[in-house]
Amino acid sequence: MKIEQIIASATARAVNALYGVEVDENNCMPQKTKKEFEGNLTVVVFPFLRASKKAPEATAQEIGEFLAANEPSVAGFNVIKGFLNLVIAPAYWAGLLHEIDKDTQYGFTPVTEQSPLVMIEYSSPNTNKPLHLGHVRNNLLGYSLSRIMEANGNKVVKTNIVNDRGIHICKSMLAWQKWGNNITPETAGKKGDHLIGDFYVLFDKHYKAEVAALMEQGKSKEEAEAASSLMTEAREMLRRWEAGDEEVRSVWRMMNGWVYDGFDETYRRMGVDFDKIYYESETYLEGKEKVLEGLEKGIMYRKEDGSVWADLTGEGLDHKLLLRSDGTSVYMTQDIGTAKLRFIDYPIDQMIYVVGNEQNYHFQVLSILLDKLGFKWGKDLVHFSYGMVELPEGKMKSREGTVVDADDLMDEMEHTARETSAELGKLDGCTPEEANEISRMVGMGALKYFILKVDPRKNMTFNPKESIDFNGNTGPFIQYTHARICSVMRKAAEAGINYATADMSSVVPSEKEIELIQRLASYPATVAEAGRTYSPAQIANYVYDLVKEYNQFYHDFSILREENEAVRAFRLMLSANVAKVIASGMSLLGIEVPERM
Fold it and tell me: Which CATH topology does 409-588 take?
């Protein structure tokens, strides 16, 4: 039983014995004692004053005396107003460290056949451009959330919906046909997603030039846009695609194939993956079918122009368009179709959509519609809404080619990591292969940690230079601490020291060691809270606090030079388990930790 539960149970017994009142143990749960006070756990006694009919200090004193006399884990106490600060016996902490050491899956809840199935959708790229910085945050959040939900005992299916149809795709296709000269990724020496993105930018450039020329002839901006022959051709291409025109479809398949190869390379490098990928081109017709089914059942209605709508005024919203008058679908229709296919494929208990906060209203509506259409998880779907990410220079625009490309960003991170590591001597003695691998780990670790340590709901500015720092709240600082502990463990092994066979029964942990063990003990609760609140930032900041605490301990205490064999073994066991939890926590963020640096 966890120490918090032991104290809560003992406190409930104390209130009953002292004041004749039964209280819920959940109301007796202690919290970690603040650093400025002596003690490990604090019980707040204000809820018991009605039972004691005494002042807060007197009530805390009486409960403290009862616990000291009747609960072996309590070694002492002090009272600050209505706060009872308890000192937990060092022997308890030593025993707890041994338990943590034995648990190879420490902090995680096992997945069983009865575990609920959670589907998490993330990434959702368009096939007219490469992945950019915004996608990086989306992918890292989605992948980390999938690891966290699995650590909390859920079966997890990671899924992606690719937006592979629509006018934006036709713009890239038309530009390639007009100005591409049959270029391919191979002949261009370029990743396919980058090549197609270039044509998307090229279309916009020609379109703007055409609109400007028409405006010079006296047309208003709206008239010029309506008269654009380029946009007319793009719309005609979309019409032909929807009609199943094989000439258009074959170009579409070829160019999308180039993009998927590029995406796969970026995903591999980013360290994210998917169990199932859905494509809008396959789901939008399913959505139309489901909407028409809803129309038959009276869930939706048709206007005079033939368009289909849902009346959501009863839910405090407005009327929502689901099919246009020409029968074409909107994004909502596609999401309904995707939901239908997913529900056929998997027995989903919970659906989590990782999508930016500009889509909050969309998912509010989707939840209501899915519920009305009979999807059991519709009402409780989770929109994991996150804020935008920008660079210090400001916002990005993909049409104008000012977006920060994910591949370029990763290149820059690895390059900066190599330079910084080399300057600080972290690569000394490494082979070229080891230096490359460490630079990759540090660069990607810096990128992932900097993005994931921020509360997902907040907008953020990503600063590449700040993220690669071997001091402070950064990925490299945490990775270096892990490597430092691994170095200590290697030296112990070389010296023939094995803490697993040592007798540590005589060791009385110091206050600093107890503080570290207490932090290790809170890891399972942190994992649970991160899952409850859908927040990788909880894990990131927990690991950082643990690492800070360990580095103080490492600075103040000898480990391998400690003469007392039992104490030395105890400190090695403590170090090994700090490294274990660092690696575990960072794995939930999708971050690798090197053993040498």
Answer: Isoleucyl-tRNA Synthetase; Domain 1 (1.10.730)
